[in-house]
What does this fold into?
Amino acid sequence: MALLGIDISAYQENVDWATVASQGVFYGFAKATEGATSRDDKFTRNWSGMRSVGIVRGAYHFFRPGRDPATQANNFLQTVQTIEAFDLPAVLDLEIDDGLSAATVIDRALQWLNIVEAKTGRKPILYTFPVFWEDKLGNPKQFSEYPLWVANFGTRSPYLPATWSRWTFHQYSESGTLRGIAGNVDLNQFNGDLDGLQKLLKGRIPLRQGFEGNVVQEMQTLLESQGFDIGTPDGDFGPKTKAQVIAFQRSKNLAADGIVGAATWAALQATKPTPTPTPNPTSPTFPASLDLVNVCKSYRGAAHQDAALKWLQSQIPKSVLDDFARRWRQQ
It folds into this structure.
């Protein structure tokens, strides 16, 4: 299943992100900067807007090879400020040469990528056009480890430059239309499912109704462990799961929007119960020298008291228990 996404800039003016999300858009890339000083007027609005509706967000920089790469990297980092664990890695948009040689463009692009990777701790994504990459830059191999976002319009099976063995994102249209966006918008597909998209993130992916995958099942299991009835954890974020997410959010005094964002994930994981270990008399927790009275006292009032005593009972021969019961009754 190829996941739908978009990329936007100030050109799309004020995007209605809630309406966009309702049309099955999983992720979005917002232009942050261009060159050494230019900043997109709508970036801050788009950056917060995507997060508010559970769209996985990414930020990109339009690279000007004729400008100093370190200054461009600083422009991007200062504008975006923080790429969170639940965000996509930074993106370098490399599609022009500013009249410079291929060697110079390659060297300066690598400088930008190295600086941003060092600052964010994430390997950036590279966006480019196949014709530019092959004809202008000559298929440089130095970029093969960077995830590829390839622009190839009019097809859902993009051309893959020889530098890479697979594409990660594919921009397949520059004339898409969606409710909530004035005019045309670029449309993209991700080469994988929701769990594949999760692997690009350091934190847990934002979830909302309509999502499917193992990461959804993980969230459902956490909800169920807290006593919220979601039925069978099946990896399908449907209306019942959304209702229980809202109930959980209210119980934790979180925004009750039914979107499992960073705060809801943190609350679910923080309250995850610790599995009760099976009592083991030979483990360091129960040294051989510990007497039975203290063992029983250590479980007094615990939620797993009965389970512990049943296990202990199963380790004692029936004849010994019968003799104990007979002698105790005689006291």
